[in-house]
Amino acid sequence: MPWFTKVADFLSAYSLLTALVFALPVYFSARLYEVSLPFIFFLLAFLVGLAIYSYNKVTDKNEDIQNGKKYEAINPFVYSTVPPAIYSVLAVTLGLLVGGLWVSLVLLVPLIVGFLYSKKVFNSLPRLKDVLGVKNIAVAFSIAFIGCLFPILGGVTVMFKVVFLVFMYIFVQLFINTVLFDIFDMKGDGETEVNTLPLRFKKKPTVYFLLIINTLLFLWFAFCYISNLFVVRHLLVAAFGIFYNYFCIWYFTKHTDKRPLAEILVDGLWVILATLIIWCI
Questions:
Q1: How far is CA 102 from the centre of its chain?
Q2: pTM score of the predicted model
Q3: Could you report the per-residue pLDDT of 13-67, keeping only the tens digit for each?
Q4: Taking the chain, what is the end-to-end CA distance rounded to the nearest angstrom?
Q5: Domains plus CATH for the chain?
């Protein structure tokens, strides 16, 4: 389906779907907390996602080309440092104006992590992306950090354990997401000497590891259900996300030639979860 590939390439080239992965967990968390949140907060998270992933394209151009991505054919400015700089300044400035100091500080954390992820600041220290496993933790942490904290920055009181549980759910989901794409990128990462879990431990053990990590989320679900911490229908949406991950792990580790489809379906998990939780209102 050439049209599908073009749509997937467009969304990936401009980091639109990956930026949504920053914004939609904020909404998902707000529903779990049962609080309302102004649209501007979702926009701020979206801008941070655009900034981080756009800058990563600048620093990872060689890996992208090795992995068969042809962003330049869509827009020659994809690998420019100007867009991520604009997104970053706009996000932090708007955050300060509409939410105050705490909002801007929360936004700065993933931006700093994203910069250290992509850029080697000191010659004696590697990029976060080059440290085994840290690249996956850094991405998952950045999104989970904003996702669990943004809905409570307006002064809403939420128990710490509830915030922590929401953080862990988002973190595990995104950790699995990043490792799946490392499996897709094994060829390019190997040629550019990027240290990833699939390259270090091989593909099959990495798949088993992902299945184990995903299964642990059922313990998360059981604890939340028994503790009556969230609305049951919202928990069921979270449970759907666990089963969805099994499908993605099974299908896309067997069909590593279907990256355009994976760009839509793996990153699209949060679109599905947000849609389902809206339906549950």
A1: 22
A2: 0.89
A3: 667 788 888 899 999 999 999 988 889 999 999 999 999 988 887 776 655 555 5
A4: 36
A5: 2-279 (1.10.600)
